[in-house]
Amino acid sequence: MRGIFRNTVIIIIVSILSLLQNFNYAQSFEIFPSELLIQPFTASTLKPKFGFEFKTNVNELSLNVGNSMDIFHYKVDENSKLSFGADMFTYTLLRSQNDFHFPVDAVDYLFGLNFGYTRKNYGARLRLSHISAHLVDGHFDKEKNEWRDGREPKVYSREFFELISFYRFIDMRIYAGATYIYKTDPTNIGQDQYQLGFEYFANNLILSNLMPYIAYDFRIINIYGYTGNNSLEAGVKYGYSEGKGISIYFRYFSGYNIHGEYFDVKEDFTSFGFNLDL
């Protein structure tokens, strides 16, 4: 199945590159644009990040490295645009120890393609992605010569389609969508997920480029039955609400762990973090 995913990605890229030859580059296309057509949804747990997040009630922190990049924008008409891009990032779970040591417990890799469409205040994004998860040496207790908490490495991966539509009203964006997981290991996990949320950036409230914001994401997860994941984030961003910048935030999360090696573990935590929107 991984071969099918790889071949599908290759076919899509080759097809798009072939179609490019039939358009007027000067009038319609922008290759490697400086900004994303559709910014990642702020409170989503499955978005590219570049920064740290420190949990307040447990000795854990996240180091997130990655980005989403648009490869081209195509101007359909005066009000509409299409985009094609790529996602590649990691979510890494660490613990803090003495002498500034941060052993790595688990890491998740995501890569894939994305397609976007906007028209005035409406839009939609489709993602085709692969995720794989791994336990790392920091999860192994060398003194006891065993894996921590009796949790040994296991195979975890999934390939999925995610479609999210949104509507923007002044400084607020609301969205809803669904995910179909067409290949997963282990195989006894549900294949459908549902998502809705909002984000609000208070532009020009303090300074022109300094914006307080609040965002909420609710995702219905199908793991041995349906349950809800809640992610609430509030902070301040310096930069552009629909573009690059740096954010300092507070987050509350409850639901199933986002790391694949802990997919069946529920957690409830608050955290502080910062993120670079590249």
Secondary-structure blueprint:
Blueprint: H1 2-20, H2 25-28, E1 29-31, E2 51-55, E3 61-75, E4 80-94, E5 104-119, E6 122-135, E7 140-141, E8 146-147, E9 156-169, E10 172-185, E11 192-201, E12 210-222, E13 226-239, E14 245-256, E15 266-277
Antiparallel strand pairs: 1-3, 2-3, 2-15, 3-4, 4-5, 5-6, 6-9, 7-8, 9-10, 10-11, 11-12, 12-13, 13-14, 14-15
Describe the 3D structure:
By secondary structure, the protein is mainly beta. It has one domain: Outer membrane phospholipase (ompla), Chain C (Beta Barrel). 8% of the residues lie in helices and 58% in strands. It is built from two helices and 15 strands. It has helices spanning 2-20, 25-28; strands spanning 29-31, 51-55, 61-75, 80-94, 104-119, 122-135, 140-141, 146-147, 156-169, 172-185, 192-201, 210-222, 226-239, 245-256, 266-277. It has a twelve-stranded antiparallel beta barrel with strand order 2-3-4-5-6-9-10-11-12-13-14-15. Strands 7-8 form a two-stranded antiparallel ribbon. A hairpin with a 6-residue loop joins strand 10 (172-185) and strand 11. The longest helix has 19 residues, at 2-20. The protein is globular, with a radius of gyration of 20 Å. The model has no long low-confidence stretch (mean pLDDT 89).
